[in-house]
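Memo to structure team: turn this sequence into structure tokens by end of day. - J.P.
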Amino acid sequence: MKKTWGGAFDKSPDDLAWRFGQSIESDSVLWREELDVSIAHARMLGATGIVPEADVIVSELEKIRAEIEIGSLKLPQDAEDIHGAIEAILFERIGEIAGKLHTGRSRNDQIATVTRLWLRRRCADLRRATRRLQSVLLELAERHQRDPMPGYTHMQRAQPITLGFHLLAHFWMLQRDVVRLDFVEKACEECPLGSAALAGTPFPIDREMTANELGFALPSPNALDATSDRDFIGDALHACAMIMQHLSRLCQEITMWTGAEYGFMRLDDSFSTGSSIMPQKRNPDFAELIRGRSGRVFGHWVAFQSMMKALPLGYNRDQQEDKPPLFDSVRLCVDSLALCAGMMETATFDVLRMKETACEDFSTATAVADALAATGMPFRKAHELTGKLVRECEKRGWTLMDLDESRLSEIGLEIPVSILEVVDVEGSIRSRDLPGGPGPEAMQRQLQKAKQLLRE
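Reply from structure team:
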């Protein structure tokens, strides 16, 4: 294929060097944005009178876009990149007029614009997928807002909470991801088109026109920065890494909860797999795969930062390596969010097993200490006294929930009968009803706030 830059060269590139430098295999995913940007640029060239034949170029580019859309046209895979592929098709159809499309722009500002446009659109996809999982978690949280389960610290049973409260914790993690996606989208609001190679162009182009047509807020203010900047990709890779970190934590719990040792959860058959040798097995493979592939997304972020860290201003070919990690990270995030939504939506929870587990291991001891402190006792003394109470119960083979007025008297500690109101799981949960807690009124406030965010 004819090179877009070969006029000053006597030799074609070495075959290996050419293959090594090709990016068409990865950047062909940008075909729609490439055409949208070229159409906007061509329209501007016509409106400003720079290219009188612009209507011909626009018409043919629109035909190419439609044909690729329906699958009747394939991109040439021997092109150097997506720019060369589209340009080659255009030359084949309208001849030398096609060469006028590149007036007033460079591949440097072109790829910066195309990638920003692609990412703005993918932010919408990521946001939708995140909101979908949040909706599933919110619906489950509302359904299970009063179903007790053990809360954990250090992977040890700590205090009783509810399943709904636990699921909402994942909702708020994802809400921070939505905020990060909003930031990424804002980081893409400036349009580099018209910056050309690094110093703008002498042609009287209308940068506001192309920025507006493509949905950007404004043209970028500095041509050198616009063609060199890849911060928006770094922001996107960081946002994707955080999404996958959050999904990996959720998937770790799915993996644990579906095991017999916990027995809290059962995945639907459509999100489980079996063993090739053990007929009884039900494996949470997709949760494990998400957990594993999160490492790939983390690696993409580190690889990108390592690639960018020593680049001088201006476009450098190193920056060709920014897009494969971006494309892979976004795809993995969208798929993983959808899989998590499917797993959670179709799962069943053994709420009786969760409640039984929450009643074990003196999980309401903190509620007892808090109740003692509420009588005016210093918390350190309340903590010590509750510890003695637990030890005495252990000696007798009782749980805190086995206590009544008679047994409390038998133990002989200076503990008022009023603590019996919080020794059971439900009482302990009810006692924590301030904002942010698992109590019934606190949960209602939290659910309402979550619903409002989803509506917005």
